[in-house]
């Protein structure tokens, strides 16, 4: 059935929100809430509209980036309820990669064709206040061309506080050292009451917005994210999305929007029943509705909406590409944060696998840089890179479970105790 015919028979409030988006008009909080509550034919109409807008705005190309994640330590002074990755420094299961190992991993990734390293970690106690800066300097010294996408707003605030300088000053130092962009993570739901339930003591909404807008002002682009499917409701999500839209209108510093499903299995707040009313992640319907509603809201203002294969799995990511998304994220090579939370998608998606996912829904794959410059569009041709030839990623790149047992990476803990 054609979209216009479906719009005639579904709930008129939801139909009107979809029509507004298709006409390029702004959506209100109420419109977004209605869209997020879509089911059945309404959800069909929402995804059709999102797919239509995606095609109008960015065409049929679906992008991915060849990158490597380096989570250099799991030691963390915080204890966010959703985080199964972090460990107290007294735990047996800790690791801390020295800067030489971070650089080795970045060099290895570069040899395998990576254009980006994505670096995020826990917040280790008594760290050198400029440790983050030293990491960036050391990588750029060896591989000046690699894009360093690193340090969540929480890490930036941690570094700035330890150094006793403002966020702006700390970000400037990171930029001068060679930092290229920041992950817009640690956003979860941008509502202080929700944050107090799932991650008490973590940065406030105001602080998150300050780090992000300061980065944008300094010419450091960031991604934007949401983590949903826990204790929030549709109004919290709608307000979060509208706040991101407002920031983008002021700064134009977001490169993309990445919805991240809450993965409950190993999350402490789920395992120990710490938060009343906690849900075990979003349903299939909620995942589709959120990605599609984001496309209707952000349109060309945030033109890139990512389907995260590591959170959603390859099949769901494929469906999301037909619900407004135009990007599949990165190859990763190593993945610890979702894996420890109970995700089962693995730690590497080879470029050829990403292209197969894209081609099987009749779209066109393209490798991009972190900032969405197209490196190569694969209309018909194929490549087999060294990364495609890797049969056992754990053997080549190591894994989280190997790291926590490796005596070479316990040194930080021993030195400090
Ligand atoms: S989410 Fe980050 S700050 Fe929170 S506990 Fe995990 S590693 Fe630490």
TrEMBL record:
S-adenosyl-L-methionine binds at residues 82, 188. Residues 62-297 form the Radical SAM core domain. [4Fe-4S] cluster binds at residues 76, 80, 83. It is an enzyme of class 2 (transferase). The keyword Protein transport does not apply. Keywords: 4Fe-4S, Iron, Iron-sulfur, Metal-binding, S-adenosyl-L-methionine, Transferase. GO terms for molecular function: 4 iron, 4 sulfur cluster binding; 5-amino-6-(D-ribitylamino)uracil--L-tyrosine 4-hydroxyphenyl transferase activity; 7,8-didemethyl-8-hydroxy-5-deazariboflavin synthase activity; metal ion binding. CDD domains: Radical_SAM (cd01335). It catalyses: 5-amino-6-(D-ribitylamino)uracil + L-tyrosine + S-adenosyl-L-methionine = 5-amino-5-(4-hydroxybenzyl)-6-(D-ribitylimino)-5,6-dihydrouracil + 2-iminoacetate + 5'-deoxyadenosine + L-methionine + H(+). Its EC number is 2.5.1.147. The keyword Protein biosynthesis does not apply. It comes from the Archaea. Its cofactor is [4Fe-4S] cluster. Pathway: Cofactor biosynthesis; coenzyme F0 biosynthesis. (3R)-3-methyl-D-ornithine binds at residues 152, 308. InterPro entries: Aldolase_TIM, CofH/MnqC-like_C, CofH_family, Elp3/MiaA/NifB-like_rSAM, F420, FO_synthase_su2, rSAM, rSAM_sf. HAMAP family: FO_synth_sub2 (MF_01612). NCBIfam families: CofH family radical SAM protein (TIGR00423), F420_cofH (TIGR03551), PRK07360.1 (NF005609). PANTHER family: FO SYNTHASE (COFH) (PTHR43076), LIPOYL SYNTHASE 2 (PTHR43076:SF1). Consists of two subunits, CofG and CofH. This is 5-amino-6-(D-ribitylamino)uracil--L-tyrosine 4-hydroxyphenyl transferase. It comes from Caldiarchaeum subterraneum. The gene is cofH.
């Amino acid at each position: 059935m054609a979209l216009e015919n479906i719009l005639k028979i579904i709930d008129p409030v939801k139909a009107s929100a979809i029509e507004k988006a298709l006409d390029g008009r702004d959506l209100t909080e109420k419109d977004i809430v209605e869209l997020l509550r879509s089911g059945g034919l309404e959800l069909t109409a929402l995804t059709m509209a999102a797919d239509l807008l995606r095609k109008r705005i960015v065409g049929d190309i679906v992008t991915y980036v060849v990158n490597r994640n380096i989570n250099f330590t799991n030691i963390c002074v915080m204890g966010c309820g959703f985080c199964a990755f972090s460990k107290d420094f007294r735990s047996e299961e800790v690791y801390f990669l020295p800067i030489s190992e971070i650089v080795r991993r970045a060099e290895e990734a570069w040899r395998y064709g990576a254009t980006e390293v994505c670096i995020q970690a826990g917040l280790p106690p008594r760290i050198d206040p400029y440790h983050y800066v030293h990491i960036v300097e050391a990588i750029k010294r060896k591989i000046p061309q690699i894009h360093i996408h690193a340090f969540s707003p929480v890490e930036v605030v941690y570094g700035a506080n330890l150094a006793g300088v403002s966020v702006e000053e700390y970000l400037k130092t990171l930029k001068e050292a060679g930092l290229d962009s920041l992950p817009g993570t640690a956003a979860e739901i941008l509502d202080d009451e929700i944050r107090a339930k799932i991650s008490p003591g973590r940065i406030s909404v105001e602080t998150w917005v300050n780090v992000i807008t300061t980065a944008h002002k300094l010419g450091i682009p960031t991604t934007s994210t949401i983590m949903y499917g826990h204790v929030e409701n549709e109004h919290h999500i709608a307000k979060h999305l509208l706040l991101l839209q407002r920031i983008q209108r002021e700064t134009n510093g977001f490169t993309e929007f990445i919805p991240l499903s809450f993965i409950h299995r190993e999350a402490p707040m789920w395992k120990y029943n710490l938060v009343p009313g906690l849900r075990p992640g979003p349903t299939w319907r909620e995942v589709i509705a959120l990605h599609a509603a984001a496309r209707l809201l952000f349109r060309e203002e945030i033109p890139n909406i990512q389907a995260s294969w590591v959170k959603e799995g390859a099949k769901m990511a494929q469906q999301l590409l037909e619900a407004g998304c135009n990007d599949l994220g990165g190859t990763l090579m190593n993945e610890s944060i979702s894996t420890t939370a109970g995700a089962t998608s693995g730690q590497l998606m080879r470029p050829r696998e990403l292209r197969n996912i894209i081609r099987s829904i009749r779209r066109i794959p393209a490798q991009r840089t972190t900032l969405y410059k197209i490196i190569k569009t694969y209309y018909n041709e194929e490549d087999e890179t060294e990364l495609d030839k890797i049969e056992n990623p754990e053997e080549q790149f190591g894994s989280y479970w190997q790291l926590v047992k490796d005596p070479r990476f316990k040194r930080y803990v021993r030195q400090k105790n």
